[in-house]
Amino acid sequence: MAHVWAFTRDIERLTQTISRLDVSQLGAGALVGSSLPLDPADTAKQLGFAEQFANSFDAVADRDFVAESLFDLAPIGTHLSRIGEEWVLWTCKSLVPQRSATVTQQDQACCRRKRTPTSPT
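Above: the chain's sequence. Below: its structure in C-alpha cell form.
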C-alpha cells in the first residue's frame, strides 16, 4: 500500500509540471519579438496550448522546465528501484521461510507423545 501513495504523489507532481509546460512560446523573440506576422494568442489557441507566454524574454531564456522535469522523474526511479529491491528480497531462496517438517512428520511427532490406552483382555 505504501507504493500506491508514493506513485500517487509522483503522478500529482507530473500533472502539475505538465500544466506549467502547456505554454506556447511561438512568436517570442529574445529582445525584439518576431518579424513574422504571428499572433501569439491565436497560434497558441490553434496549436492546443492552454496559454501563451507572458514575457517574451522569459519564454526564450527559461530552462526551468528541464530541471523541473528531471526532478519529477528522479523520485519515480527511486520508487521503482524500491519495488525491485523488494521483489529480489522476497524471491531470494535464502530469505524465503523454509518449512521445517511436512504435515505427516508433524502428525507422527504428535502421536509419539500420546499414550494409547490398552484394552483389557
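Residues 64-91 form the longest helix (28 residues).
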